[in-house]
Specification:
The complex is a heterodimer of chains A (289) and B (760). With 289 residues, chain A is α+β, with helices and mostly antiparallel strands. Helix content of chain A is 36%, strand content 25%. In chain A, β4 and β5 form a beta hairpin. Classes of the chains: A alpha+beta (289), B alpha+beta (760). The interface between A and B is medium-sized, with 18 and 24 residues. The complex binds flavin-adenine dinucleotide.
Chain lengths: 289, 760
C-alpha cells in the first residue's frame, strides 16, 4: 500500500532545488519511479512529500561536444539506447541499455534515477566507471563533480547530500585505440545482473595494454574497480595466463553476497570467467576502433 | 484432401478473443456491486503455532470497518476435496486452535475500502504460542518430529501403493539394474489473475459468488459443506478467468472469507489476494523425493521398475492425494512394464500446502523417469530413442489391472522426432538435444469428490433465429474450452461457429460439470455438448423429414445452414426456416437438447490417454554453466485436433511453464518462509528466454472422444524438464538429478567432472 503524499512537479531546476531545501528529509525525489515505486509499494519508503523532476526539461538531453558526451540526469534509458551519437561513439552504453529491463521500464526509467538508486546490481554504473565518467550534482549552493566510481558509498547509499540533485553525467572523449565491453550474467534475459563486468582497454604499441579500467557490478556493496587486477594487465602484453590471473585477482577483490539467485562462491567464479572474457572483447573492440 | 469436418480442425481464434485483447472482458477482479465491501485476510506469521487469543476490538473500532471474523465465526468444519475420506478433509481455512504454515488464515476484515481493511489487520492482536515446526518431509517422517496434525503417525498424510507383475522376481532376471535418486522442486502457478471472489448473501439467505475458478460446481459444493447450506441456495459463477493451472478448484481463503463476512453483513464482500498471498498462501506444485530402480535385459527390454516417492505435503491434504497417486501411475508411462511397483508417501510439513498443478504429478515422474531412461540407454549402449521405441506403449494396450489405452500414437511421435533430430545434423560444440516421451490422461475418472452427478452435462438450446446456446458447467480459464465446445456444437449441428454462444461455469444456469482439471473438458464436456447438440438435431430432423416428405430410408443432414438428404446435398431446405417451423410446431417451445457423459468400464484413471515425444536443444556456456533453450520440438498426438490454434497456444504456454520448471523456477524457504514471493524475485522464463518451438501433430483418432479428440492441455507440461536434463547431459556430459537445473548446478557439476578427470 502506497502512503498518501503531497506531490510537486517543478518545471525548472531552481524550483526543484527550492522545494528540496524546504522539505529536506521529509521529501523524496521521484523521476521515472521505476525503482522508487517498488520500494514505496513495499512500504519501505513513505515520504510525506514527493518532488517529481521528470518534467524538468533542462535536465533531459544528450549533448556531444569536444570534451565528450553530456547526458542530463532525467534522460531515459530508452533515449540513450536509441541515440545515434551514443550508438556511434559509446556503443557499449547503447548495448548495455538494450539489456536493461524491458522496453516499458526503459521508457520510464532514467539514467540519473538508476545511478541515484545506488543498487550495486545496476547496469549503467559499471559501464560509466569503465568509461571514466564524471557525475555532477547540483544544490542550491552550487555544483560539484566526482568520478562515477566514488559515487556509491554502500548498498543503496550514495554521495548525494541533502538538497542535491544529480544533474549531469559526463563522458570523456574516448582515447584512440580504446575499446569497451560490458556484460551481465543473469539467469533470465533482461533480469538484474547476478554479476556485471565492464572493461575498457587502450592498446599501445604492439597491442600491449596501455591502460585498462575494470568495473564490477553486483560483486560488492557498491560497484567496484578491482585495481589489483587492472595492475596485473596494465602495461603488459596480454596473454591468457595474465588474463586468468587478473580474473582470479578480481574475484578476490570482490566481496559478493550469497542470496537465492547465486552463492557467493558462484559469483566469484563468474568474475573469474567474465573479467578475462570481457577484456578480450574490449581488446577486440579497441582493434576495430 | 478435404476434411470431412466443416468447423473442427479450422484455425479459429478464441470466441472471447476480441473482448480479451481490447480489455473489455470482465474478470472477477472487475466486478463491482452496489454497497460492496472489501475484505483482507490476516495470516499466521508462524509456521506452527497455537492460537491463544485473538483480540479484534481495536480493529472493529476503526472507522470504515464493518466486520471482523475469526475461526469462531465459522462452523468449524474442515474442507477437503477427497470428500469420501473425512480424515483427508483437514483444512479449516480460518484456523481456530492452531496454524500450520506461514500464511494460514486466522482472521478476516470487511471494510469500505482495501486500505481501511488492511489498516484494520494491523489492529488485530493475536497471541500465539509458537510450536516446534518441521519443513522437510524426510525430517517429518522421523519418530520424534513435531506433529503437524494430531494423531497422524509419522506425519504420513497418505500412502499409495500400485503394483503389478512380480517385481522382485523380474529384477532377478535383469542383466542390468540402475538405482537413482531425484529431487523435484516446488513451482508456483503464477496465474495472471490472483485468487479472488465477490460473495453476496441476500437477506433471503441465498449466496451468490463471482469467482475465478476452475470448477464452479466444486466451489458450490464445498461452500455447501462448509456453510451447512443446500447447494442449490448457492450460485457460483466463474467469469473470464485469468489462469488456473490447478490452483483454483478447491475452496480458497478469498472465497471462504468473503462468504463468511458477507453472511454476517448481508452485503457483498470482495477479496482479491495480493501477489504475495498468491505465492505464499494458496497452493503449489508438490515437491518430491524420488527413488527409482529400473531393470533391463541386455537387448533393452525393460523388465521391471520400482518407484518410491516421498512428497512434501505441506500443511493440508488439498489435492495432494491425487498428485501422489498420479505420480505413481505415470511413473510407468509411457512404457509397457510387465512388472511395476510404486510406494508413495505424502508427508505433512509446516509449509504452504502442495497440491494440483498442470500435469498433476506427471511432470515429476516424467523428469525422473526420462532422465533415468537415458542413463539406462547409455549403460546398455542403446540409442535412447530406440530404447523408448522398444518399450513404448501401443494402441489397445492394457496397463495391467489399471487402465486401458485405445488410441496411442507414441511410435509415430518417436519416428517423427528421430527424423527432425537427424535433419538438424551435426550440432555446434556444447549443444545437445535431449528427448523425453510422455503420456497423460484425458480426463480423470477417480471420483474422490463423490459427485452424484454425471461428470459432464450440457444443454443446447436452439433459438427462433437458428442460433444455438450452449449451457455447460465447464470452466474456460483461458485455455479456450468455450471455443472448443462451441466448435463441437457447431460441427454437430452443421451450423457456423458464429451461430453458437456459450454460457459456462455458472451453477445457476448450467448443468453440473466437474470443471477444468485433469485435462477433461475437451473429452468429457465435449461429449456432453456433442450429445446435447445431437438431440437438438434429431428434433429438427423430425420436423424437416415431415416437411420435406422424403422417403424414410433416406438420412438427412445439416451443412452450412442447409438441411439436405445425405448424398444429395444440392436438394435441401433452409435450416433457419425449418427451425422456425419446428418451434412453432412445438407450441412455441425452443428446441432443447440434453447431453451428459460419465465414463463407464474405462478403468479407474481415464477413458483415454494422449502421447508425445519432445526434443529440446540446449547450448551450454561451459565456463559459467549458463545454458539457453535453443529449440523445443514436440511430436504430439491428441486425437482429432479441434482447433490447431488452441493446441499451439497450449504448447507454447506449456513450454514456458515446464521450461521454467526445468530451468529456474523454485520456491526456496527459510524455516517455512518462502523467500521469493514476488514476480521480481520468482524467476519465470519470459518471451526473451523462449526457444523456437515447433509442433508436429500426429494423426490419431480416439474412439471415446468427441469427433475422435482427446486432451492437449496438461500432458504437454510433462516432458520438458526431462528433455532439458537429457539435453544438458548430451551437450556437456553432466547429469543434474535435482530440479531446477540451474546454471549454478551445471557449473558445479562441470567443475566436479573436471576434478575427477584430473584425478584420473
Ligand atoms: C521490472 C524492472 C526491471 C529492471 N531491470 C533493471 C536492470 O536490468 N538493470 C538495471 O540497472 N536496472 C533495472 N531496473 C531498475 C530501473 O530501471 C532503474 O533503477 C531506473 O532506471 C531508475 O530510474 P527512475 O528514473 O525510474 O528512478 P526513480 O525510481 O524515480 O528514482 C530512483 C531513486 O533515485 C532518486 N533520484 C532519481 N533521480 C534523481 C536525481 N536526478 N537526483 C537525485 N536523486 C534522484 C530517487 O529519489 C530514488 O531514490 C529495473 C526496474 C524494473 C521496474
Amino acid at each position: 500500500m502506497i502512503n498518501d503524499f503531497e506531490y510537486f512537479a517543478p518545471k525548472t531546476l531552481k524550483e526543484a532545488l527550492a522545494l528540496l531545501d524546504k522539505y529536506q528529509d521529509d521529501c523524496k525525489v521521484i523521476c521515472g519511479g521505476q525503482s522508487l515505486l517498488v520500494l514505496m509499494r513495499q512500504g519501505l519508503v513513505a515520504p510525506p512529500y514527493m518532488i517529481d523532476i521528470k518534467g524538468i526539461a533542462e535536465l533531459s538531453y544528450i549533448k556531444d561536444d569536444k570534451d565528450g558526451l553530456k547526458i542530463g540526469a532525467t534522460t531515459t534509458h530508452r533515449a540513450i539506447e536509441k541515440s545515434p551519437v551514443v550508438k556511434k561513439k559509446y556503443p557499449v552504453l547503447a548495448k548495455m541499455e538494450t539489456r536493461l529491463a524491458s522496453i516499458q521500464t526503459r521508457n520510464w526509467g532514467t539514467i540519473g534515477g538508476n545511478v541515484c538508486h545506488g543498487d550495486p546490481a545496476g547496469d549503467p554504473l559499471p559501464v560509466l566507471i569503465a568509461l571514466g565518467a564524471t557525475l555532477t550534482m547540483t544544490g542550491s549552493k552550487g555544483k560539484r563533480s566526482m568520478p562515477a566510481e566514488n559515487f556509491c558509498l554502500d548498498y543503496f547509499e550514495t554521495a548525494l547530500e541533502p538538497g542535491e540533485l544529480l544533474t549531469e553525467i559526463a563522458l570523456p572523449v574516448v582515447p584512440p585505440n580504446t575499446g569497451t565491453a560490458y556484460t551481465k550474467f543473469n539467469v533470465i534475459e533482461s533480469d538484474l545482473a547476478t554479476v556485471g563486468v565492464a572493461v575498457s582497454v587502450t592498446l599501445g604499441a604492439g597491442d600491449s595494454c596501455q591502460d585498462i579500467r575494470i568495473a564490477l557490478g553486483a560483486s560488492a556493496p557498491t560497484p567496484i574497480r578491482p585495481k589489483k587486477a587492472e595492475a596485473i594487465l596494465k602495461g603488459k602484453k596480454i596473454t591468457d595466463a595474465l588474463l586468468a590471473q587478473a580474473g582470479e585477482t578480481a574475484s578476490t577483490e570482490a566481496d559478493p553476497i550469497s542470496d537465492i539467485y547465486a552463492s557467493e562462491e558462484y559469483r566469484r567464479e563468474l568474475i573469474k570467467v567474465l573479467v578475462p572474457r570481457l577484456t578480450r572483447e574490449a581488446m577486440a573492440n579497441a582493434k576495430k576502433a | 484432401m478435404t476434411s470431412k469436418f466443416s468447423v473442427i480442425g479450422q484455425r479459429v481464434h478464441n470466441i472471447d478473443g476480441t473482448e480479451k485483447v481490447t480489455g473489455s472482458a470482465k474478470y472477477t477482479f472487475d466486478v463491482v456491486l452496489p454497497n460492496m465491501l472489501y475484505g483482507k485476510i490476516l495470516r499466521s506469521p508462524h509456521p506452527h503455532a497455537k492460537i491463544l487469543k485473538i483480540d479484534t476490538r481495536q480493529a472493529k473500532k476503526l472507522i470504515g470497518v464493518k466486520a471482523v471474523v475469526t475461526g469462531k465465526d465459522t462452523l468449524g468444519r474442515k474442507q477437503g476435496i477427497w470428500r469420501r475420506f473425512p480424515e483427508l478433509c483437514d483444512e479449516e481455512i480460518l484456523c481456530r486452535a492452531k496454524t500450520r504454515y506461514i500464511g494460514d488464515p486466522v482472521a478476516a476484515v470487511a471494510a469500505i475500502d482495501e486500505d481501511t481493511a488492511e489498516e484494520a489487520l494491523d489492529l488485530i492482536e493475536v497471541e500465539y504460542e509458537p510450536l516446534p515446526a518441521v519443513f522437510d518431509p524426510l525430517e517429518a517422517i522421523k519418530e520424534d518430529a513435531p506433529q503437524v496434525h494430531d494423531g497422524v503417525e509419522l506425519n504420513i498424510n497418505i500412502n499409495r501403493h500400485i503394483e503389478w507383475g512380480d517385481v522382485d522376481e523380474a529384477f532377478r532376471k535383469c542383466d542390468h539394474i540402475r538405482e537413482d535418486q531425484f529431487k523435484c522442486s516446488s513451482q508456483a502457478h503464477v496465474c495472471m489473475e490472483t485468487h479472488d471472489a465477490v460473495a453476496s448473501f441476500g437477506h433471503n439467505g441465498k449466496l451468490t459468488v463471482w469467482t475465478s475458478t476452475q470448477s464452479s460446481y466444486y466451489i458450490q459444493r464445498l461452500y455447501a459443506d462448509m456453510l451447512d447450506m443446500r447447494e442449490s441456495d448457492i450460485r457460483v459463477m466463474n467469469r473470464h478467468t485469468g489462469g488456473g493451472f490447478g490452483s483454483k478448484f478447491e475452496l480458497d481463503s478469498a472465497q471462504f472469507c468473503a462468504a463468511i463476512l458477507s453472511q454476517k453483513l448481508c452485503q457483498p464482500v470482495k477479496i482479491v489476494l495480493t501477489r504475495e498471498e498468491e505465492f505464499t498462501a494458496t497452493k503449489r506444485r508438490t515437491p518430491m523425493y524420488y527413488f527409482l530402480k529400473l531393470g533391463a535385459k541386455k537387448d533393452g527390454t525393460l523388465l521391471a521398475k520400482e518407484a518410491r516417492v516421498i512428497t512434501e505435503g505441506g500443511a493440508y491434504t488439498a489435492m495432494g492425494a491425487t498428485a501422489l497417486y498420479l505420480t505413481g501411475f505415470f511413473s510407468s508411462f509411457p512404457y509397457k512394464f510387465p512388472n511395476y511397483r510404486y510406494d508413495g508417501y505424502r508427508v505433512y510439513t509446516n509449509t504452504e500446502p502442495s497440491s494440483a498443478m498442470r500435469g498433476f504429478g506427471a511432470p515429476q515422474s516424467t523428469f525422473c523417469g526420462e532422465s533415468q531412461l537415458d542413463m539406462m540407454a547409455e549403460d546398455l549402449g542403446i540409442d535412447p530413442i530406440e530404447l523408448r521405441r522398444k518399450n513404448g506403449m501401443t494402441p489397445d494396450y492394457e496397463v495391467p489391472g489399471q487402465a486401458f489405452i485405445q488410441s496411442c500414437g507414441l511410435h509415430q511421435c518417436l519416428d517423427k522426432i528421430e527424423e527432425t533430430i537427424e535433419k538438424r545434423g551435426k550440432l555446434p560444440p556444447n549443444h545437445g538435444i535431449g528427448v523425453a516421451s510422455y503420456g497423460f490422461m484425458s480426463g480423470g475418472i477417480f471420483n474422490w469428490f463423490n459427485t452424484p452427478y454425471a461428470f459432464s452435462a450440457a444443454v443446447v438450446r436452439i433459438n427462433i433465429d437458428g442460433k444455438a446456446d450452449v449451457f455447460t458447467g465447464a470452466c474456460d480459464i483461458g485455455q479456450g474450452s468455450n471455443t472448443t465446445l462451441a466448435m463441437i456444437c457447431a460441427e454437430e449441428l452443421g451450423i457456423k461457429l458464429e451461430d453458437v454462444r456459450v454460457f459456462s461455469g455458472d451453477t445457476g444456469i448450467c448443468p453440473p460439470d466437474l470443471g477444468a482439471w485433469g485435462s477433461r473438458q475437451t473429452l468429457m464436456s465435449g461429449n456432453a455438448v456433442k450429445r446435447a447438440a445431437a438431440e437438438c438435431k434429431s428434433q429438427i430432423m423430425e420436423f424437416a423429414a415431415a416437411k420435406m416428405g422424403v422417403n424414410i430410408v433416406y438420412d438427412l443432414d445439416i451443412k452450412d445452414g442447409w438441411i439436405h438428404i445425405v448424398n444429395r446435398p444440392e436438394r435441401g431446405v433452409s435450416y433457419y426456416d425449418i427451425v422456425k417451423g419446428a418451434i412453432r410446431g412445438k407450441d412455441g417451445v425452443a428446441i432443447m437438447g440434453r447431453g451428459h457423459y460419465t465414463p463407464h468400464r474405462k478403468g479407474m484413471i481415464s477413458p483415454a490417454y494422449s502421447f508425445g515425444v519432445q526434443a529440446a536443444e540446449v547450448a551450454v556456456d561451459v565456463e559459467t554453466g549458463r545454458y539457453k533453450l535453443v529449440n523445443v520440438t514436440t511430436a504430439h498426438e491428441s486425437g482429432t485436433v479441434i482447433n490447431p490454434v488452441g493446441i499451439e497456444g497450449q504448447l507454447e504456454g506449456a513450454i514456458m511453464m515446464a521450461g521454467g520448471y526445468g530451468y529456474c523456477e523454485d520456491q526456496p524457504m527459510d524455516e517455512g518462509k518462502i523467500l521469493n514471493p514476488s514476480i521480481a524475485d520468482y524467476k519465470l522464463i519470459r518471451s526473451l528466454d523462449m526457444p523456437e518451438t515447433e509442433i508436429l501433430e500426429i494423426d490419431t483418432y480416439e474412439p471415446e472422444g468427441p469427433f475422435g479428440a482427446k486432451e492437449a492441455g496438461e500432458g504437454l507440461t510433462n516432458p520438458t524438464a526431462g528433455a532439458i536434463g537429457n539435453a544438458v547431459y548430451k551437450a556437456v556430459g553432466v547429469r543434474i538429478n535435482d530440479l531446477p537445473i540451474t546454471p549454478e548446478k551445471v557449473f558445479k557439476a562441470l567443475k566436479e567432472k573436471e576434478k575427477k578427470k584430473k584425478a584420473k
